Amino acid sequence: MPSMLKSLKLLTDPTRLRILLLLDAEALSVADLQELLGMGQSRISTQLSQLKAGGLVTDERSGKHNFYRSEMSPALCQLATEAARELPEVAKDASALRHLQDKRRDKTRTYFDSLAGRFGKDYVPGRSWKGLAEALLKVSNQGIVADLGAGEGTLAQMLARQAERVIAVDLSPKMVEFGRELAARHELQNLEYRLGDIEQPPLDDASVDLAFLSQALHHAGSPEKALAEAFRILKPGGKLVVLDLLQHNFEEARELYADVWLGFGEGELATMLEKAGFTEVETAVVDREPEPPNFQTLLAVAKKAR
Prior knowledge:
The protein is an alpha/beta fold. Helix content is 43%, strand content 21%. It has a 7-stranded mixed sheet with strand order 5-4-3-6-7-9-8, sandwiched between helices. A two-stranded antiparallel sheet has the order 1-2. The radius of gyration is 20 Å and the shape is globular. The two termini are 30 Å apart.
């Protein structure tokens, strides 16, 4: 645990305090912080180095970039928030962060709007029938299911054949519209589409028995928030299934497929699930594409304790 005295000393610097509060809201790169704070790279890197040495931030590699996260305790975070009220720049920082998050969501929404009605015709990294089959083998007695980041709903339609009810959530209005048309065409009356973000799904607390995140998590601005929301909507005893890309270095995926994260390591994803409150976490690599860049599909299954 970081020294409280050292932590308090680090918080006395206004720039470090602003950086910490931003990182507490979202994992960010040095380039992101430059854009948000209007400061040079060397200044930000120096402050991050000191915060990391003090145990207040951690970083992880995603492609060419390191992304930093706050590791403040709840008590220290509350103290930092109180202290930040004396800094007029903090309100501007929060506004700039919201703008950055909106830009990311708009980019993702535009990309998936362009794919509406074309799934199965256009290539989607990591989306394989083998991966879906491995995931479906892990679940039974599906009850009420949430398909988060559902796209036009190929998986949701498969689940609706067995589940009591399926709620498909997607950020793209065109995907939702196309999914509704498909559900009506196939007479799937138990399949409902809702417009929403996987980081704020329009679902009640403890309302679903099973949640899926299929090739959606690497599009989230904050994967941790998405997993925490999945935990929130699950009933006690409910399961979460995550299908995503194993960590890779194909940087071009950010532009080609609107990816925010270049996949996840098995240990990294397991840790995020445990931090969100899940238990009985299992992970496995279930598929590998034969063509370069040889994307691999990562499966994780976790449970919300009763």
